[in-house]
Specification:
This protein has helices at 2-42, 46-60, 64-83, 92-118, 121-129, 134-164, 176-187, 190-223. With 224 residues, the chain is an all-alpha fold. It has a single domain (2-223), classed as MetI-like (MetI-like fold, Orthogonal Bundle). The longest helix is centred in the first third of the chain and has 41 residues, at 2-42. The relative contact order is 0.15.
């Protein structure tokens, strides 16, 4: 184990950095998608509700590994076939970010929908009675209260997204699992390498879980 750490420790730490970068990029765009489709799901408009339902159900109904292959191989093949030449190419980081953003965004939409619906309806009615337009009332009154409820769930979703990055080793992104495979191929130290990788994930995810619990306790105290 010590030899693996001294020889490949820097490489594995770099790979963990790539994993965190991918997870953060995915979560950033997922929050944007989640906010858009979460708001669509709570509007009193049937067409908007249907659009949100289709997005959430379609993305959550496709295994992430299939989604990764579809985005990395399928979409460029489709566009290049339509254009007749190789006009579209995606790097593993770009495809991985899109894949994570879509997958995480579908769950974020449900988190945001639930957070908004957890706010008493009287808050929106009171804001509207004071003359605030719907979107300004949502932005200034409802969302700030909903975010307090959503933060622990968002952190938990980030933890899930971080673990899901391991699936993207199938498209060649140099995240921790993909790098570990190369280390195993070079060192033949199967047990030691995968034990080290498991410990690295465990440390990062445990820290994030503790942060989520601390935030949840503080938010709960703030509501008392």
């Amino acid at each position: 184990m010590i030899r693996i750490i001294t020889t490949y420790g820097g490489l594995l730490l770099t790979a963990m950095g790539q994993t965190l970068l991918l997870a953060l990029c995915g979560l950033f765009f997922a929050c944007i998608l989640g906010l858009i489709f979460g708001l669509l799901s709570v509007l009193k408009n049937r067409a908007c509700n249907i659009i949100s339902i289709i997005f959430v159900d379609a993305i959550r109904g496709v295994p992430m590994i299939v989604l990764a292959f579809y985005i990395y191989f399928g979409m460029p093949a489709l566009f290049n076939g339509l254009m007749g030449y190789n006009a579209v190419t995606l790097t593993a980081l770009q495809a991985g970010t899109i894949c994570l953003s879509l997958n995480c965004g579908a769950y974020m939409a449900e988190i945001i929908r639930a957070g908004i619906q957890s706010v008493d309806k009287g808050q929106m009615e009171a804001a509207r009675s004071l003359g605030l337009p719907y979107w300004k009332a949502m932005y200034r009154v409802v969302l700030p209260q909903a975010i307090r409820t959503m933060i622990p769930s968002i952190i938990n979703q980030f933890i899930i997204t971080l673990k899901d990055t391991s699936i993207l080793s199938v498209i060649g992104f140099p995240e921790l699992v993909n790098t570990a495979k190369n280390v195993v191929a070079n060192s033949f130290k199967i047990f030691e390498v995968w034990t080290l990788v498991a410990l690295m994930y465990l440390v990062v995810i445990t820290v994030l879980s503790r942060v989520a619990k601390i935030l949840e306790r503080r938010l709960n105290r703030g509501r008392e």
